[in-house]
Amino acid sequence: MPRAPMIAPSLLSADFSRLADEVARVADADWLHVDVMDAHFVPNLTLGLPVVEAIQAVSPIPLDCHLMIEAPERWAPGYAELGARNVTVHAEACTGDPRAVARDLRAAGALAGLAVKPGTALEDYTEVLREFDTLLVMTVEPGFGGQAFMAEVLPKVRRARELVDTGHLQLFVEVDGGINTDTIEQAAEAGADVFVAGSAVYGADDPARAIAALRTQASAAVARAGTAG
Ligand code: DX5
Ligand code: ZN
To answer: Could you give the dihedral angle defined by the CA atoms of residues 73, 80, 184 and 127, in that order, rounded to the nearest 10 degrees?
Structure first.
C-alpha cells in the first residue's frame, strides 16, 4: 500500500487582506500550512497567535503551524491549545532539549513537529525525533516564499524515509520550499509524504486544480518509488 501524499498549501503566498477567502480556496488540501516568523529567527515577520486563532476558526482543514521563531518552548504550546493539528518548531531555535516541546505539544492535543534547515544534519536529531510526529525538511532557507528548490537536501529526505521504513522513527516526512510541478516528483521519490506549496498553489489561477495536479504527480512518484525499491 503506497503512502498517500498530503498537500499543505502555504498561506504565506495568499492575499493577506482576504485571509478567510484564501483559506476557503484550498479546502481540498490536507493541511493548511501557516508560516509564523518573528523577524529574529528569520529576517521576515508574518503573523502570530491572534491571527492564527482567527484562521483556525474559519479553516475547513487542519492547521499545520510552522514556527520560525526564537524561544519556541514558550510559544509553541499556544498553537496546539488553539487547535492546530500539527505544530512544528525549528531544531536550531530550541535552547533546551526539543523533546520537552514535543511533550508539551502532544499534551495539548497536537502532533509535534521538528524542522531542520538545509544545513542542519539529521544525525544529530535521530534520537530526539523518536518523540516527534513530523519531521519538516526545509528545501530552501527559511524566511521567504517563492525561492528555488534545493535538490542537494534530497539525501536528507531519503535518510529520513529510511529511518521510518526501518522502524527507527514513526513520523511524517514533510518538505517545505520550492515545491511545484517541476520538483514534487523528486521529493516524493526521495520519500516525503507531506508537501508544502505556497507560490505553486496561490500563484495558480485555480488553486484547487493546482492542488489536484500536485497530488496526482506525488502519488505517481510514490508508486514508482515503491515498485523500484
Ligand atoms: C519559507 C516557508 C515556506 C514557504 C514556501 O520559509 O516556510 O512554507 O511559504 O513557499 P514556496 O512554496 O513558494 O517555496
Ligand atoms: Zn513553512
So the answer is: 50
